[in-house]
Protein backbone atom coordinates (compact mmCIF):
# COMPACT_ATOMS: atom_id res chain seq x y z
CA UNK A 1 0.00 0.00 0.00
CA UNK A 2 1.43 3.39 -1.00
CA UNK A 3 1.10 6.45 1.21
CA UNK A 4 1.16 10.13 0.36
CA UNK A 5 1.83 12.66 3.08
CA UNK A 6 0.84 16.32 2.95
CA UNK A 7 1.81 18.83 5.63
CA UNK A 8 0.07 22.17 6.05
CA UNK A 9 1.95 24.92 7.88
CA UNK A 10 0.31 28.12 9.08
CA UNK A 11 3.04 30.72 9.62
CA UNK A 12 1.55 33.35 11.94
CA UNK A 13 4.43 35.84 11.79
CA UNK A 14 6.25 35.58 8.47
CA UNK A 15 8.69 38.39 9.35
CA UNK A 16 9.92 36.57 12.48
CA UNK A 17 9.67 32.97 11.23
CA UNK A 18 10.53 33.04 7.53
CA UNK A 19 14.25 32.55 7.99
CA UNK A 20 13.88 29.56 10.35
CA UNK A 21 11.22 27.95 8.15
CA UNK A 22 13.31 28.42 5.00
CA UNK A 23 16.34 26.87 6.73
CA UNK A 24 14.34 23.71 7.57
CA UNK A 25 12.81 23.51 4.09
CA UNK A 26 16.23 23.83 2.49
CA UNK A 27 17.73 21.17 4.78
CA UNK A 28 15.00 18.69 3.81
CA UNK A 29 14.55 19.85 0.22
CA UNK A 30 15.01 16.32 -1.18
CA UNK A 31 12.01 15.19 0.93
CA UNK A 32 9.68 17.81 -0.57
CA UNK A 33 7.99 16.82 -3.82
CA UNK A 34 5.62 19.80 -4.03
CA UNK A 35 5.66 23.15 -2.20
CA UNK A 36 2.89 25.74 -2.38
CA UNK A 37 2.96 29.04 -0.50
CA UNK A 38 -0.11 31.25 -0.03
CA UNK A 39 -0.47 34.67 1.57
CA UNK A 40 -2.61 37.76 1.11
CA UNK A 41 -1.04 40.54 -0.90
CA UNK A 42 -2.26 43.61 -2.76
CA UNK A 43 -0.86 46.98 -3.78
CA UNK A 44 -1.24 48.35 -0.23
CA UNK A 45 -0.01 45.53 1.99
CA UNK A 46 1.59 42.11 2.32
CA UNK A 47 0.12 39.82 4.99
CA UNK A 48 2.22 38.87 8.00
CA UNK A 49 0.78 35.35 7.97
CA UNK A 50 0.93 32.68 5.32
CA UNK A 51 0.11 29.08 4.54
CA UNK A 52 2.56 26.50 3.17
CA UNK A 53 1.45 23.18 1.77
CA UNK A 54 4.09 20.47 1.33
CA UNK A 55 3.74 17.11 -0.39
CA UNK A 56 6.45 14.91 1.09
CA UNK A 57 8.53 12.28 -0.65
CA UNK A 58 11.12 9.73 0.41
CA UNK A 59 12.14 8.02 3.60
CA UNK A 60 9.71 8.10 6.49
CA UNK A 61 12.45 9.12 8.96
CA UNK A 62 13.47 12.19 6.94
CA UNK A 63 9.83 13.22 6.54
CA UNK A 64 9.28 12.77 10.28
CA UNK A 65 12.38 14.82 11.06
CA UNK A 66 11.18 17.59 8.73
CA UNK A 67 7.81 17.67 10.46
CA UNK A 68 9.42 17.65 13.92
CA UNK A 69 11.76 20.52 13.08
CA UNK A 70 8.86 22.59 11.77
CA UNK A 71 6.81 21.87 14.90
CA UNK A 72 9.74 23.13 17.02
CA UNK A 73 9.49 26.63 15.53
CA UNK A 74 7.42 28.99 17.70
CA UNK A 75 4.50 30.61 15.87
CA UNK A 76 3.77 27.78 13.44
CA UNK A 77 0.75 25.52 13.31
CA UNK A 78 1.57 22.21 11.60
CA UNK A 79 -1.09 19.76 10.42
CA UNK A 80 -0.45 16.43 8.71
CA UNK A 81 -2.58 14.38 6.31
CA UNK A 82 -1.71 10.84 5.26
CA UNK A 83 -3.46 9.25 2.26
CA UNK A 84 -3.18 5.51 1.67
CA UNK A 85 -3.96 3.92 -1.66
Structure in a nutshell:
This protein is an alpha+beta fold and 85 residues long. It has helices at residues 14-27, 60-71; strands spanning 3-11, 32-38, 50-56, 76-84.
What are the SSEs and their pairings?
Layout: E1 3-11, H1 14-27, E2 32-38, E3 50-56, H2 60-71, E4 76-84
Antiparallel strand pairs: 1-3, 1-4, 2-3
How does this model look, in words?
Pfam families: TM1266-like. This is Iron-only hydrogenase system regulator. The chain is an alpha+beta fold and 85 residues long. The protein has a single domain, classed as Alpha-Beta Plaits (2-Layer Sandwich). It has 2 helices and 4 strands; from the N terminus they run E-H-E-E-H-E. It has a 4-stranded antiparallel sheet with strand order 2-3-1-4, covered by helices on one side. The longest helix has 14 residues.
Features:
single chain, 85 residues, alpha+beta, Alpha-Beta Plaits, four-stranded antiparallel β-sheet, 4 strands, 31% helix
β-strand number: 4
Shape: globular
What is the CATH class designation? Alpha Beta
- What topology, given as strand order, has the largest sheet? 2-3-1-4
Q: Would you give the CATH topology?
A: Alpha-Beta Plaits
User: What characterizes the major β-sheet?
Assistant: 4 strands, antiparallel
Estimated share of beta-strand residues: 35-45%
* Class inferred from helices and paired strands: alpha+beta
Helix content: 25-40%
Radius of gyration using CA atoms only:
13 Å
Number of domains: 1
Mean pLDDT: 90
How many helices does DSSP assign?
Answer: 2
Unreliable spans are none
CATH architecture: 2-Layer Sandwich
Series of secondary-structure elements, N-terminal to C-terminal: EHEEHE
Fourth-level CATH superfamily: ACT-like. Chain A, domain 2
How far is the first residue's CA from the last residue's CA? 6 Å
InterPro entries: Acetolactate_synth/TF_NikR_C, ACT-like_dom_sf, FeFe-hyd_TM1266
Pfam families: TM1266-like
Protein name: Iron-only hydrogenase system regulator
Amino acid sequence: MATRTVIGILVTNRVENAQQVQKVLTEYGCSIKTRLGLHEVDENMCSTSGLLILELFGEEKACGDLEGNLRAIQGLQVQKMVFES
